[in-house]
């Protein structure tokens, strides 16, 4: 039995997309981040860092989204390469997301969407770095269909973040290979299902609805800025 503890965030979707793409049977529980459930003692026993996602497989807890993806890939034998070198390529691009794309886009979100004051140098810093990282992806995708050659967990991880580029205020104009890659992954049934677990954020935040964006940003701001539940 597998149970995923998650919320509708890019890191949360990394886990649910991987589970769906690999065909695992699993249950999920939505963690109310605004209510501080992730800080409760029972959840800290699963993830000492008090963050989502977390996965429990036969009483074995796994935390950190990248670690969950690697565990599932090894367990399933899918989307991870078949030898040391191909697996290393997947790991390199997975770590690129975890050490670069995720943190930079996350900080862009904080200063562009959530922080109560508009600190333009900080906004510029993280949006520019996010764009630079997108250009790294673009160069790689001009050489290969997917980041590590064949479709892998590295693509799933990066895609779950890059698809939210509008929320971070980072343009993908002039990056045709990145755009092609985004569309190709979005067309996959497992990905389409994965981004509805525990809910599809596209239903809550629409590109043409400024009010919904402001409402969501206000809820998130209370957690991001104060570190406490809303």
TrEMBL record:
Pfam name, any one: GST_N
Occurrences of domain GST C-terminal (ranges): 83-205
Database matches in PROSITE patterns: GST_CTER (PS50405), GST_NTER (PS50404)
Top-level taxon in the UniProt lineage: Bacteria
Domain GST N-terminal: 1-80
Matching SUPFAM superfamilies: GST C-terminal domain-like, Thioredoxin-like
Gene3D superfamilies assigned to the protein according to its UniProt record, in alphabetical order: 1.20.1050.10, Glutaredoxin
InterPro entries found in the cross-reference section: Glutathione-S-Trfase_C-like, Glutathione-S-Trfase_C_sf, Glutathione_S-Trfase, Glutathione_S-Trfase_N, GST_C, Thioredoxin-like_sf
Entry's family note: Belongs to the GST superfamily.
Name under which the protein is recorded: Glutathione S-transferase/GST-like protein
Annotated organism of origin: Sphingosinicella microcystinivorans
